[in-house]
Q: What sequence folds into this?
C-alpha cells in the first residue's frame, strides 16, 4: 500500500509530463486498438456458425481447353442435392443457395425495403447451423414463402409477430413470412436478411436446377463428425461426372472440391495482404507511442535517481523500485484506456463509416482478445524499460554519476522513435499513392454518363425501345447480369457441340 501511495504522490508532482505521457499513450492506443481489432475481426470470419469446422463450401474448378482455372464458388444448382442424396454416410446435410442481393426491393404496406436476399431450400438452416427462432424450415419447399432475420423482423414489424405477414417483391409478387431466424453477424461472407423459398424460384422460372445449365449457385455441405473433406472430394466428382462428362481436352470440364468455410475469407490473398499491412501500421503506431513514453520517463532520470537512492537506503530493493514504476505506468495506461474508449464512442459514427464495421462487431467476445493483448503489450514495453533502468540505479554512485548533463542515452531512443515515425509516414505515402492509382486506373470502358438500374421487363426489347426514345438517353443496353459483376448462365457450344464458355444473357 505504501508503494502505491508513493506512486500517486509521484504522479501528482509530475503532472505536466504525465499529461504529455497520457496524451501520447491515448492517441497511439486509440488508433492501434482500432487496427488490431479490425485484424481480429477479419480473422474471425465465418467462425460463428454452429460447429463451423464441419461446414464446407463447394468449389468448382473449370478446365478450359486443357488449362486449369482457379477455384471459385459458383456451381450448378443440382450439385448439393446430388451430394446429400448419394453420400449420406459421410454428409449430414447440404444446401443450394442463390443470392439476389439488395437489388430487388420488397414492400410492406407503403414502405420500401431493400434487404440482402437469398433463395434456398429446406436444409439451409440445418446445414449452415443457423438457429431458427420460429417457423418450420420445411415451408421453404412451397412457393411464395420466405423467412426473415430477427433484426429485419424487428425493424419492419416492430413488436408484432412477423409470421403470417405479407411482403410484396417489386410490388408484383406477394410472399408470406413463415418464420424468423437468428441474425447473421457482420464477420460473415454471406450475410442476408431474407431467405426466399426454392419453390418460388421454380415457380417463377428465376433459374434452373440442373447439372449443366445455370451455374449461378453456391453450395454448402455439413460433414458428419470425424469425416475429412478428402474422403468426400473424389466421390463428389464421380457423381458429378455422370451428369457432366469430364473431358478437359475437348472444351469445358468441371470438377468439385470442398473448402472449409472458415478459410474461404481468411485465405484470400487480398485479405491476408490487408491484415499484414494493418498489423505493420498498428505495431508501428504502438511502438512509437511506447518509445515516446519511455523517452519522457527516462528524461527525468537525473531528477528521480536521487529519490531512488533514498528509497534504497531506506531498505527498498530493486524489485520494489521496479514495481513502483510499473504501477505508475499501469495507472497512466488505465487513464489512457478510459480516454481511448471515450474517443472511440465520441467519434463512433465516423469510425464506423471509415472502417466499414460497427463498434459492436469490432469489439465483442470473439474479437476483443487482440485489443486486450495490445494494452498488455503496451504496459510491458512502456513500463518494463524505465522500471529496469531506475531499479538498477546504484545507491553508492547515484549522486555522483546521474547528472543533468548525462544525455548520451537520448540519441539511440530518439533514433528509434524517429525511425518508427518515418516508417509510418512512408507507409501512409505508399497507401495514398496506391489509392490514387486505383481511383485513376483505366477501367477499359468510359464510366462517365453511364447509369444502371434494375427492372424486370415483361418484354425486354419493348422496354429498351421506350427508354431509348427519352431525350436524355443516348443508348440503352439490357442484361440479365451486368458484365461487370461476372458471368453465370448456360454453356455455349460451338458447331461441333463442344462447350466453349458460359455467359450471361445480354441484349
A:
Amino acid at each position: 500500500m505504501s508503494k502505491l501511495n508513493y506512486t500517486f504522490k509521484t504522479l501528482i508532482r509530475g503532472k505536466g509530463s504525465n499529461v504529455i505521457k497520457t496524451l501520447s499513450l491515448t492517441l497511439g492506443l486509440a488508433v492501434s486498438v482500432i487496427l488490431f481489432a479490425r485484424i481480429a475481426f477479419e480473422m474471425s470470419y465465418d467462425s460463428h456458425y454452429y460447429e463451423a469446422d464441419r461446414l464446407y463450401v463447394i468449389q468448382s474448378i473449370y478446365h478450359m481447353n486443357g488449362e486449369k482455372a482457379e477455384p471459385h464458388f459458383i456451381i450448378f444448382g443440382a450439385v448439393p442435392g446430388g451430394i446429400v442424396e448419394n453420400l449420406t454416410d459421410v454428409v449430414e446435410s447440404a444446401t443450394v443457395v442463390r443470392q439476389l442481393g439488395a437489388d430487388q426491393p420488397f414492400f410492406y404496406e407503403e414502405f420500401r425495403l431493400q434487404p440482402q436476399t437469398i433463395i434456398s431450400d429446406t436444409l439451409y438452416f440445418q446445414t449452415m447451423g443457423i438457429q431458427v427462432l420460429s417457423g418450420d424450415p420445411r415451408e421453404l419447399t412451397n412457393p411464395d414463402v420466405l423467412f426473415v432475420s430477427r433484426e429485419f423482423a424487428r425493424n419492419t414489424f416492430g413488436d408484432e409477430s412477423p409470421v403470417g405477414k405479407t411482403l410484396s417483391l417489386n410490388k408484383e409478387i406477394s410472399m408470406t413470412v413463415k418464420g424468423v431466424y437468428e441474425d447473421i453477424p457482420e464477420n460473415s461472407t454471406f450475410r442476408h436478411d431474407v431467405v426466399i423459398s426454392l419453390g418460388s424460384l421454380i415457380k417463377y422460372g428465376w433459374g434452373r436446377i440442373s447439372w449443366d445449365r445455370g451455374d449461378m449457385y453456391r453450395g454448402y455441405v455439413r460433414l458428419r463428425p470425424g469425416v475429412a473433406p478428402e474422403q468426400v472430394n473424389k466421390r463428389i466428382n464421380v457423381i458429378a461426372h455422370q451428369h457432366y462428362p469430364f473431358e478437359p481436352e475437348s472444351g469445358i470440364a468441371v470438377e468439385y472440391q470442398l473448402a472449409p468455410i472458415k478459410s474461404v475469407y481468411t485465405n484470400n490473398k487480398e485479405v491476408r495482404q490487408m491484415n499484414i499491412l494493418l498489423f505493420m501500421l498498428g505495431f508501428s503506431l504502438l511502438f512509437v507511442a511506447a518509445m515516446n513514453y519511455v523517452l519522457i520517463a527516462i528524461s527525468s532520470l537525473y531528477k528521480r535517481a536521487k529519490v531512488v537512492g533514498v528509497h534504497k537506503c531506506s531498505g527498498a530493493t530493486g524489485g520494489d523500485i521496479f514495481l513502483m514504476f510499473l504501477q505508475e505506468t499501469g495507472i497512466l495506461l488505465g487513464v489512457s484506456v478510459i480516454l481511448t474508449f471515450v474517443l472511440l464512442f465520441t467519434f463512433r459514427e465516423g469510425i464506423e463509416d471509415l472502417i466499414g464495421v460497427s463498434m459492436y462487431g469490432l469489439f465483442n467476445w470473439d474479437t476483443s482478445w487482440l485489443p486486450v493483448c495490445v494494452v498488455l503489450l503496451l504496459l510491458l514495453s512502456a513500463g518494463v524499460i524505465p522500471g529496469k533502468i531506475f531499479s538498477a540505479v546504484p545507491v553508492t554512485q547515484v549522486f555522483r554519476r546521474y547528472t543533468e548533463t548525462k544525455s548520451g542515452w537520448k540519441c539511440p531512443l530518439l533514433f528509434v522513435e524517429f525511425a518508427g515515425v518515418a516508417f509510418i509516414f512512408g507507409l501512409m505515402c505508399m497507401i495514398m499513392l496506391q489509392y490514387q492509382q486505383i481511383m485513376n486506373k483505366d477501367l477499359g470502358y468510359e464510366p462517365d454518363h453511364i447509369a444502371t438500374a434494375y427492372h424486370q421487363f415483361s418484354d425486354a426489347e419493348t422496354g429498351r425501345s421506350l427508354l431509348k426514345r427519352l431525350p436524355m438517353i443516348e443508348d440503352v443496353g439490357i442484361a440479365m447480369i451486368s458484365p461487370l459483376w461476372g458471368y453465370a448462365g448456360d454453356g455455349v457450344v460451338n458447331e461441333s457441340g463442344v462447350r466453349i464458355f458460359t455467359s450471361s444473357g445480354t441484349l
Remarks:
- The chain has a mean pLDDT of 79.
- The chain has 17 helices and 15 strands.
